[in-house]
Amino acid sequence: MRRRRIDSARPPLRQLLRAIRHVMREPYEAPPGEVELERLTRTMVLADGRTLAYSDLGHPAGLPVLVAHGIPSCRFDGYGLHHRAASMGLRILTPDRPGWGRSSPAPRLSHLGWAEDVSQLLDHLGVDRLGVIGFSGGAGHALGLAHALPERVSAVVLVSGAIPWDATTAHLATRSQRFFASWRSAPLRALARKLERLARAVAPDPLDLEIRGRTGIEWMVVTGIEGCRQNMSINIDEPQLLRRWEFSPAEIGQPVAIWHGAEDREASVDLARWLAGELRVPTLRVVHGGHQAPGRREKDWVAWLLPHLRQAPARRNGFAFSATGPPGARLVFGTSTPNSSLLRKPNGTVSATFGPPTVTGSPR
User: How are beta strands 361-363 and 331-333 bridged, if at all?
Assistant: First the structure.
């Protein structure tokens, strides 16, 4: 019997296998160290009764950053930032989007619709302002948060972002992007159902997950399987969002930094350059390498994000307040509360701690 070569398969399957080969050939680093497994999976109930699952990593009391995970992936994406974030005083929140991981499906998928779920999560956690990082297929969702929640999102970082396109920019998308945004055929859905049954059989429970000692590829597989544990067809449905913009990127007023690989075959660097030309406050960094290369520049894009996080209060119901001014500065507060205290440091920094309600002030 004559054996069929992979390249002689039907075009959709051939393109899928080709895309997988590109990803597997790139170096992928596993996140180091350990984390309390309870922090990898927390849940809340949304106003409509759906469950939203998320991980809460990094420094528990740090400046908050929300991660929009890639495709296929889940709340485990935030684990790669855990140790650096903990050392830098950052708190990393990574929700499973609807239908991914342990989050309930939504009646309709959209970038802006997810912003309402995130808003409820931030209210639940008492977070007022935060930064956002969008990995790969989470780029459109990260931008959607900036557009829908301008009063809460201070800045955005896109790492190897799969940028949405429309009829005027479709020619800039890679072949891989166009394929994943259009695979709705019946055979692929049948394949998705089979993979879904497989994922349910082998997906690890986070409480039993052994993280230490995994290679980068093993970690990527674990993250992808956990993401698809309840609905493999989400890999078909969510990429459809790449084929349209629900808002104009020119309407985003916050700073947006884009880190992208010059040789990226999964997400178009040409679309990244186009997006930088549309945004109001863009920063574009094109680095040598493919889809995984910008992820290895974590130190650089975290350093870019940090000053933007420090420009605004981090907690809605928090208790910490700080202001910096010249020696002898007088702090004027809009509200006074009992049990407050002031501390002037030698460098001229004045810190104050209060009970609720939150207090705002400025040096004069």
Answer: antiparallel
CA 43 – CA 46 distance, rounded (Å): 10
Q: Which of 234, 220, 197 is nearest to 97 (CA)?
A: 234
Residue 266 · residue 164 · CB < 8 Å: no
Q: How far apart are the first and last CA of the chain?
A: 85
Distances (CA, A) of 327 to 277, 324, 346, 348, 364: 43, 9, 8, 5, 11
Give the residues across from 260 on adjacent strands. Answer: 286
Class of domain 6-309: alpha beta
Q: Residue 58's beta-bridge partner residues?
A: 91
pLDDT in tens, 197-240: 655 555 545 444 444 445 556 667 778 888 888 877 787 788 88
| Domain spans in the chain, listed from the N-terminal domain onward | 6-309, 320-363
Torsions phi, psi for 99 (to 5 deg): 90, -15
Structure tokens at 181: 């945004």
The predicted model scores a pTM of 0.74
